[in-house]
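User: Sequence recovery, please. Input:
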């Protein structure tokens, strides 16, 4: 049995607000797998950088923050030491800083082993931008989720409203386009679909249907020799 068969990984990558988080969470629950929200790690670093006013050019200090990040995932909660940062890391100002720190090679390197440590029996669903390309290149199944920028801005708007957070559609759409451009153009681990990933365009599709398709693809991948 190969390591990938023993502890399989389902890698779900895609741009901001493509529904990766919701879909990955539902797939993990359906299979009783562990779940890694890699974006939350970059967001937690972004939050610390903002909190301490660290200069975004100071790659060494930020990579040290990444190496020593005392972050914990307890159910749906993200904790940094004793502080609950679940809500704070979803703010747009943190989203933008997260995508800036994520472009720093030393920061990505510092997070590599930490992300791989999430791979524990019986399996892992990992979501982000480079799960299938860099972190888990041998994943049993790789999915690239996408949706139009307008639909993604609308989803983010609804999400923020439900959480009682203020948002403007125009700003959200602008932020999404800006982050897409930065995530795709950066030199390290840019957001791109790997050749062996399955492209799933979720524009107009309900979450339930996307989850059903991912589970069907996983079943098919397991049957493949
Ligand atoms: O997925 P989410 O929007 O929460 O991620 C926040 C930011 O972290 C993204 O805009 C992206 O720049 C960065 N990120 C990344 N690689 C990952 C996950 C997130 O660069 N695997």
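Assistant: Recovered sequence (225 residues):
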């Amino acid at each position: 049995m190969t390591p990938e068969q023993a502890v399989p990984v389902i890698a779900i990558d895609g741009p901001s607000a493509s529904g990766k988080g919701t879909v990955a969470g539902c797939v993990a629950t359906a299979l009783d797998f562990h779940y890694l929200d890699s974006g939350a790690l970059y967001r937690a670093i972004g939050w610390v950088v903002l909190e301490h006013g660290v200069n975004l050019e100071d790659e060494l200090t930020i990579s040290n923050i990444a190496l020593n990040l005392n972050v914990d995932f307890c159910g749906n909660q993200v904790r940094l030491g004793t502080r609950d940062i679940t809500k704070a890391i979803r703010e747009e100002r943190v989203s933008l800083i997260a995508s800036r720190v994520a472009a720093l090679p030393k920061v990505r390197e510092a997070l590599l082993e930490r992300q791989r440590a999430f791979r524990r029996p019986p399996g892992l669903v990992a979501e982000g931008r480079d799960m299938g390309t860099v972190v888990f290149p041998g994943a049993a199944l790789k999915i690239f989720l996408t949706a139009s920028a307008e639909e993604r801005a609308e989803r983010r708007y609804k999400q923020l409203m439900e959480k009682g957070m203020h948002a403007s559609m125009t700003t959200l759409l602008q932020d999404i386009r800006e982050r897409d451009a930065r995530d795709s153009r950066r030199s390290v681990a840019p957001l791109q679909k790997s050749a062996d990933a399955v492209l799933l365009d979720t524009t107009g599709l309900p979450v339930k249907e996307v989850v059903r398709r991912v589970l069907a693809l996983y079943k098919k991948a397991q049957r493949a020799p």
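The CA atoms of residues 184 and 198 lie 18 Å apart.
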